[in-house]
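Pair request: fold both.
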Amino acid sequence: MSYTGLSRRAPFVGALQVSGNDAEAFLQRILTGDLGQLEPGMGQINCSCSVQGRVIANFYLWRLGATSYMLLPPPEMTDFLQQHLATYVLRADVQLECMEYEWSAWIGGPPPTRFQAGAPENILTQPYTGMEQGERLLLRFSGEEPRFLYAIGPDITVRTPPEQPDSKAHNLTPEQWALLDVEAGLPWIGTESSGQFLPQMLYLEKFKAMALDKGCYPGQEVINRLQHQGVLKHRLYRVRSEEDLESGWKLLDGEGTAAGRMLNCAPTETGWVGLAVVKIGAESLHPMDILEQELFIEEPIPKGPAGDATAR
């Protein structure tokens, strides 16, 4: 099977490369996740928080080599994330570079043959692993069926996506990719929601994006205190609507008071579905600027009664 639909503007993810002799130590001291066990080719979900413990941005992180990492945030967050991380560089030997790639995505099947031949053991056969070949990247993501992102840099002459012999694989559009994230309960912070929510409100511990037992990082004290002593007042829910949803919407409850904010969302065959951080106990939701549009709360992420939101 041949893949089509490369996009110059990276509709799936943005790309920020962090490199230099101090890259690992730099990221380890400012991100919530633990990079200590990552070998080249391995990845994870991670995030950066403010000193108040609020998530500034979350992203996929891949270790490309001994001194090089690739961060993949939502496309609109790439420049913002670069500027945020730059404030911590100081005298560290670290370079931050927004990368220009063309992307394609698919689901199902094994990795393309050209990548299988040179892949180390466990790379591309496990979720959150990947390979770099020159200016080409192939990254595998989690899911009931494996998801893949393929990227090529601007200096690649032959721009055809790799051949995939397995007929079970099929292309993904950006909307389909976004829908799979919503179905997986994977939230993404955008410019409108940056700096507002604690990692526990986003249930990022499900994706091992926060480490409570590593060295200090911005916001760690607040995050640890909530984890061991606090009770959440807001949590992540899956919501749906028969009409369009939009990331960043402020949400009101039935009494017209602030109830939360819409995060990532995607169209379905019958309407829209999305993830939102919502006040626990809210029974109805409306966008602040479209009061006549009702949002239906489907289920909390993770599933369970409100009492499950207690941070332990």
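--- second member of the pair ---
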Amino acid sequence: MTPVFTTRDCFITLSISERWCKRDNLRQSFPAVSGNCHVIQMKIKKAITVLMSCLFAGALLTGCGGTDTGANTGGQSPKIKLGMITHLNANESKMEEILQKAQETTEVNILKYGITYYENLHLMQMAIESNSVDQISLYNSVADYVIASNNKYEKIKDNSLNHLNDSFCFAVRKDDTQLKTDLDNAIKTMKDNGTLDSLVDKYITNVDKDNLPKVDIPMIEGADTIKIGITGDLPPLDLTLADNSPAGFNTALLAEIAKNLGKNIEIVQIDSGARAAALAAQKIDVIFWAVLPNGEKVPKDIDKPEEVEFTVPYFQDNVAHLKVSK
């Protein structure tokens, strides 16, 4: 490890050398030693000059014992490490590139974040509690649920995050046009008759965090089955109870859609990052959920694979960031 010297170290070294040379009147008794002392002092003074130059240069570039922080951040503060659920299509690098472009059209200082993906909420919570990340990015509904369930977390007070708002949709294969039409019609019907608002009130707005209701999905004998891929770990939207029973807003929505379409729904629990591949391989018929940015501030196709189509939205929510309470 390269030793780090400061100007204080240099002056202390010079002071010690002078005292050492003067001790016991060495300069008078031993001229050779006195001469050597003079040489030592001259060398030390030269060393100090070099070290001080390096210290000043280190503020501008890496080298001479300087750190590489400035090289990594362009002289700015280190990025905030942000945990995020793995997206359908955008990896960390692509997401940062897209968000950099969106920086000009949003009021959010997006460039201050360095993104790390996690497959589910549980892994994100482990990461923030072990200091692997500084914050985790969720939706307001999920953030409120997490805080109510565990008081070790708190929201980051940043009103600019309210400018990041997403719509939730189903995702289907592009060639599965009839299924997309059926889902669009079912969502529209539920919006028109108030069913969707009732589900939001029951399972999100007024949900009992300590007593989440189990959701029974009807089974219709002889009906076709639609396989739905869910993450099962994003309460109160997506979750599976301790007895493996499905619960949450999304599951309740699926139950209503099954009734509306007259079809059976089979839930397939899958990691977030594997959803698009499972859909393409026809292991599932629908991805539940996918997000579509609202407004013009973030590109609509930020997380949309080419072979996928989104349904009309069924829910909207703002982005929220959590940190561990001090």
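Observation on the second member. The chain has eleven helices and 13 strands.
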